[in-house]
Amino acid sequence: MQLLKRFGWAALVLVVALIAVLPLPDFWITQLNYIALYSLAGLGLVLLTGVAGLTSFGQAAFVGIGAYATAWITLNTGLSPWLTLFIGLAITGVSALVVGGITLRMSGHFLPLATIAWGLSLYYVMGNLDALGKYDGLLGIPGLSIFGFDIGQGRGFFLLAWGVLLTAALAILQLLDSRPGRAMRSLRTGTQMAEAMGVNTLRYKIIIFVIAALLASVSGWLFAHFQRSINPSPFGLKMGIEYLFMTVVGGVGHVWGAVIGALLTKLLEDQLQVLLPMLIGTSGSYETIVFGIVLVLTLKFLPNGLWSLVDRRLPRAPRRLDWPNVAALAERAKPATGELVLDVQKIRKQFGGLTAVNDISFQIHAGQIVGLIGPNGAGKSTTFNLITGVAALTTGRVLFRGQAISGLKSREIAARGMSRTFQHVKMIPDMTVLENVALGAHLRGAKGVASAMARLNREEEKQLFAQAQKQLERIGMGAYLHEQAGNLAMGPQRLMEIARALCSDPALLLLDEPAAGLRHKEKQGLAGVLRQLRSEGMSILLVEHDMDLVMDVCDHLVVMEFGTLLTQGTPEEVQNNPQVRAAYLGTEH
Ligand code: ADP
Ligand code: MG
User: Fold this and answer.
1) Which of 31, 409, 528, 563 could bond 358 through an S-S bridge, CB–CB 3.0 to 4.6 Å?
2) pLDDT class of 404 with cuts at 50, 70, 90
3) DSSP string spanning 505-555?
4) Which of the listed CATH numbers 3.40.50.150, 3.20.20.70, 3.40.50.300, 1.20.1560.10 matches domain 338-417+506-589?
5) pTM of the predicted model, to two decimals?
6) Can you give the residue ranges of every domain in the chain?
7) Does ligand 1 lie within 6 Å of residue 351's CB atom?
């Protein structure tokens, strides 16, 4: 696989070098130059929309900032374009931080709307400022040269633009296969799971937004010095929509989708502009209509874009498990057996007039499995959410290892050694089991985006994967390492979530209905896993409907009904409690 990848890259570089020396018509070189520029902006959308699920129509505006910054500064100060590139990047980065900082807190359709507003307003700023030449733009921008060689056009520019594009593509591919990359890929499925693994999701969204903007800015810089003149129209909302359009058609979930999309759009545009007027008899921008039809058909029949056709056929080899001698990750000091781990003190949650959790108190000691049971609607999940910081307490206190954790965010609670699974499995379906589980070790690594892009994170990655493999083997999932998580049956999926939670080196494990949807054999397997974890000193809070399992593995039971504590005690005490029998006979079982 490694070899194949290297071969692929060597082939790509060779093709680019060949195109540069072959006697192709200049027209084609120019087209390829534009394709590289579109692809660069599209790469940003792959990260933003494809990876993180954030739809942006504002990408063209960031191309515009890069272009106008370099054009205005080189024209007015005579600084070298190689310097103004970085000034443009700084201006773009700051604007993206501001725009992203405001808009990325919004959810649902507010973000796309905000990017539309942003794209529109920047277009009018560019078109109305005297200093920027209003709608006529800026003329006489110098071309690029290096050591006296003119690379401002033709083949010189081709090598520069495609060199930049391939470097950016490589950096992003390496980013996506890394600790921060896995955190970014988790964003598309919502933020709850990632936050529970300790990921600061807002921070990652902003980082992605800034990277996407910087890629656009580089594209704008290249564009300005290639065209030698700029005006607002290629940076308006229409172009923002087109960037999204071409990337979605190419495959917004893949780095190469951006390139395929730009290639196809540009080639189609050229052909249609010649062909359609001949067919129809009059001239006009009929190609827009054809593009609309292509987009609708792609969304209908190839929702993952054209690249997915290729991607499906590429050979996939399992990740090499090349970490036999890597140093183990540091582990946190664990509570001694019997020590008080969780102290829930009269917690209450009110939803309007409904008291979902009514002054519930209980304790968990190290090495104990405590079951939280009760009929549907009793308030178990809400209790769970109050403890893990997903929901805010109305009143009461939660102490974890002697410290108050009430009011902390769920990722802060995770950092203190509480880890959880979800009633409805939350995972990244297109990653392998091993990669999904490695996300659980997020807080135990530190390497960020820059080291991931430059692949300076190898040692730490090995440590994280070694940990993921260890936890999967610990619960008997060693045979599933390379399986795509989305292809797993319910049983292995739930076990994968437990392994992911264990990867964070927790002192307390919270499992929300781990046996739901499991077959009898799988439930027995789960019981074995829970007992084994306890024997290794783990403390567990178990919300579960399956009474056989609960009675079988729990040391202590907390029974809730209508938000209140019905009783608590050993499984035998609870089983013999007439109130519990009544509660259960009255509702279920
Ligand atoms: P369980 O997990 O024991 O089935 P829940 O904790 O999910 O119970 O729910 C307890 C009660 O709180 C139910 O009556 C439920 O409808 C209500 N409830 C839960 N979450 C919310 C919410 N976000 N807003 C309003 N009511 C809620
Ligand atoms: Mg529930």
Assistant:
1) 563
2) very high
3) --SEEEEESTTTT--HHHHHHHHHHHHHHHHTT-EEEEE-S-HHHHHHH-S
4) 3.40.50.300
5) 0.93
6) 24-235, 338-417+506-589, 428-505
7) yes
Residues listed for the chain: 589
Find out whether the beta carbon of 448 lies less than 6 Å from any atom of ligand 1: no
| Nearest Cα residue to atom 24 of ligand 1 | 351
C-alpha–C-alpha distance, residues 541 and 24, integer Å: 68
Q: Specify whether the CB–CB gap between 420 and 163 falls below 8 A.
A: no
Average pLDDT over residues 442-450: 97
Per the structure block, which two tokens stand in for 134?
Answer: 């209003």
Cα–chain center distance at 94? 22
Closest protein CA for atom 18 of ligand 1:
356
Whether 374 is in the pocket of ligand 1, judged by its Cβ within 6 Å, is: yes
What's the average model confidence in pLDDT over 183-200?
A: 95
Is residue 100 lining ligand 1, measured as CB closer than 6 Å? no
Q: Is 584 exposed, middle or buried (0-12, 13-18, 19+ CB in 10 A)?
A: middle
Whether residue 1 is predicted with pLDDT greater than 60 in this model: the reply is no
pLDDT of residue 589: 46
User: What residues have CB less than 8 Å from 554, skipping those under 6 apart?
Assistant: 369, 370, 371, 542, 571
- Ligand 1 site, residue 380, Cβ cutoff 6 A: yes
Test site for ligand 1: of 357, 380, 381, 382, most ligand atoms within 8 A of the Cβ: 382
